[in-house]
Amino acid sequence: MCPQVCTNSAGSYTCSCYDGFRLQGDKTTCLECSGLNWGPNCARKCSECSANTKRCDRVKGCICATGWTGAACSQDINECDQTGICGELEDCKNSFGSYECVCKTGYKKGSDGSCQDVNECVTGLNNCDRNAECVNTEGSHLCSCKLGYSGDGLTCSDIDECALGTDDCKQECINVIGSFNCYCRIGFRLNTDRKTCLKIMLPEVENKCNSTSLVCDLLNGGCSINSTGDAFCFCNSGYEFTNPGVDYTCTDIDECQNNNSGCEQICTDNTGGYSCTCLTGYKLSSDSKSCDSCNETSTWGQNCANGCNCGIGAEFCDRLTGCVCKRGYSGIYCTENINECLSSPCLNNQTCVDTVGSYKCTCPTGYHIQNDVCVDENECVLQTDSCNQRCINKAGGYLCSCKDGFVLTGNTTCQPFDECALLNNNCEQICVDTGGSFYCSCRDGFVLNSDQSSCDKDYDPCANNNINCSYGCVLENNAPVCFCQLGYELSTDDSQTCSVVYRSVQFTMTTDYPYSSKMSDPSTDEFKHARVDITAGLDDSYSNIPEFLSLTVDRFSSGSTVVQYTVVFNQSLSDSLIIETASVTKNITQIIVLEKPYSVSGEIFVSYKTTILEPLTCTLCGSNHTCVILSINTYECRPPLSEIESRSLFMEVTLQKTFNSNYGNKLHLDYAAYEVDLEQAFAAVMTGVEDIQYLNVTDFRHHTEGVTTSLVVIFNTIANKTLQYDKVLNILVKIETKDRSCIDIVDTCIALYGSISLGNTTTALEPVICSTCSLIQDCIQDNQTSRYQCVNKPTTEQTASSATEGTTTVEGTTTTEGTTTTEGTTTLEGTTTTEGTTTTEGTTTTVQSKSSSDLILGLGIGLPLAISAFIISMIMICMCCRHKYRSDSESTVQEQSEDDWKVGPAFGRFDPSLRGTRGAFGTDLMRQWSRTSGDKYHRDQPEELVHPYFGPGSLDDFTTGADSSERLDFAPDTTVGEEDLEVPPRRSNFSWDFMFDMLDPREEVKIPRPFVDAEEADLFRGKKEKILHKRDSNV
């Protein structure tokens, strides 16, 4: 067959080659053109190319160097014809094969390569007169004559200010080159301002002027003598005699009355003179009378006081307003470029390019203007591309691609790749690369089949040798050697058996690449070109896998474009390599084909080691997960039930529905459809159950009466699973016990068969109806309906007694755990509870159901009640003990109530309430602890101290220790010392002391009791006895 181009003809075919290849003598093989020829069948010679050729391409011929064009690269390109090729301050000069941008006059290249202004006044590159001043401007300069000279700046001459009357001397003026000097008449000297004169005392002048009858105006003139010594009167410059010869008074002359005094524009009369001025935009010339335009001196404004200093963006310097900017510039000196492109002035797909001071509308690269619209240039048609095989035009450019059997390198060049080395071929035995293609051949003893790839056995070269090769045998050095077909390897154990080596993975994906019916035929250019382009788009995705060897597209089919391709590796497949390759493929969401993205949609399918296609999602699930189809091209990995068991409830239900064999295949759409229906049905009845994460069907099984379904309800947390158990249980019981026990599935209520089971694990499912059985009932399965029901146990005296004595009822439900049934007789012994059931001799099974929430509920209520009862009991015991203790104390007080020492009157009346006899904790301390002189309870009584524990009087009732009989008594003649005070603290009868002794709080929270230092009463004065007043102990 032809390796490149095959042209069919009647009864035969003809082989031809791509451009850049030459058909060999066998009329089949194609070889590349040598370096001396190019074009179709290598018919053109590279010697036709001129010296301006960069290289000779075997497909396109002369590839011109930059700046040259033409078939032989002999035509110079005038780059200066391109608008904007040089900068605003540059001029373009074309040269052979190139061009140069040079700075305009007045500019030179700076260190940064840009054109910068030359200051001619500094560098001496000006032609101004020596009596002129040089003023630099942007790109040029100006010359203007200095003060005292007139001219155009290039030539300047002296001005006679004295003759023109433009001097400002008060008396006399003498002209000098470039200026003038003032001097004074006899009898005066020049002032320091070198213009006015001061009178000096000269005798000869004074004598002459005083001896005459002349009356001179000494304010605006004076008297002097002439060369003959005669005196005369004179007026200062700008004055004249009012009546010459008669009156020598000097009056001001209005020079402006006489022909504007020679001023070109404005004449202003001053006292003793005049001045010429100019309009705005003009400057008084060096003759002080004429006016020069500011434009001549690169200045503007009043008297040209402002320098223009205009930038490159100035059209000119207006003598009134200064720099006038060109279009595209702004700023005082017109140096700021305006980016006109910000206003989007270009239309019809043209691109705006901002330039210095302007902008231009151009077409993007790869376009040209046609009827003021940018139109794409087809470089492939114009042959202005640089591709050496396939050129694909695109908007604004082109792309290079290759023909089948070649790979693109460097964006433009196609190089042949070795399909044989990359295992990118379908040869059964031998692959021979031909540079851009390959062909298959067979070993000795085999012949090539008509499909040009497989080999048929012809004879056995090793027939006379004692060897049993499983595939084929050849003689090497007259010794038989077994060999295997490509893709197989010879066993190292016996060197005779061949086993397959899996080195490739095949994928099938759906894309939106435009499909053509010709793409299904591998012999068409459409197939070959799409194969090359899509292979290039996919190849980069796998190139980072170290074991990756090659990728080739095998076939295309319709349905958008379904692409089937094979990824080949340099080693046999391992589980990790399969997963890595599948992960890479999963991330392919689009294929870039010739710079255009095409989306990948739906599920990708994979096959390896077998021809069975598997969803890619399922491949990535792993062995311990379950892959389930959700809808067309949508699959899901579900974790093993053991991972979610702790927060899941499991159900099992059998519905009287015809079983579909596809229900057993979790990757079949029938499974997905029925799964969705059931999940929606159970989700609808579970609306009152809280915190459900999701509900799934886990299995469909065939049952003689229908379909048995296993479901799992997964909660977000373990705790919520426990709390919601009873709700789920009650819902399922309600479904099973209603008049018509069925499940609504797609508007049809499908009847239940048997009972619904529920459990915390998949192996501990119990019929939900059993949870309703009382203690005196058994949960028994009906053999005909397979449904469980609660049946009263057989009644005997023993069981009745046991039922009476040993049952416990919570919320109206009696539960008996662990009943053992033998030969139909139920026996209950006392209140003993045993878990589990035993069935013998064909009797029905008794099942008791428990909810773990019962235990939690019991503990939640029982424990707080038990703790509360214990605390109340302890308080009551303490109260009883205290009551007994207080009764004993009262009896002691009554026995010792006699006032032996008559201290009552001294301490007030006795208040037994302070002994703690009223109420559990005595009376109000704050009311008792006070001096009673202003107290409503003790008015009109002598001031007395009310003790917070004893009341008035009865100090000797204060006892020490635990025994109230231990009293602190002092004899009348006893002297109380400090050692006597160190006695154990007395305990009062106040109720809080008992609590204090019993509770014993920390020291830092004790409340110190106040103490009273009582003075001796009057009735004791003179007696030897003293009564010790002790400090009360702290509470």
From TrEMBL:
Q: Which residues cross the membrane?
A: 855-877
Comp. bias (Polar residues): 794-803
Listed SUPFAM superfamilies: EGF/Laminin, Growth factor receptor domain, SEA domain
Limits of the SEA domain: 499-612
Tell me yes or no: is Transmembrane among this UniProt entry's keywords.
yes
Q: Which Gene3D superfamilies match?
A: Laminin, SEA domain
Q: What is this protein called?
A: Uncharacterized protein
**What residue stretch is flagged as signal peptide?**
none
Give the UniProt keywords, A-Z: Disulfide bond, EGF-like domain, Glycoprotein, Membrane, Repeat, Secreted, Signal, Transmembrane, Transmembrane helix
For this protein, the record's PANTHER family field holds:
EGF-LIKE AND EMI DOMAIN-CONTAINING PROTEIN 1, EGF-LIKE DOMAIN-CONTAINING PROTEIN
**Where is composition skewed (Low complexity) in this entry?**
804-846
Q: Name one GO molecular function term.
A: calcium ion binding
- Any keyword Mitochondrion? no
Q: Name one Pfam family in it.
A: EGF_3
**Record's subcellular location:** Secreted
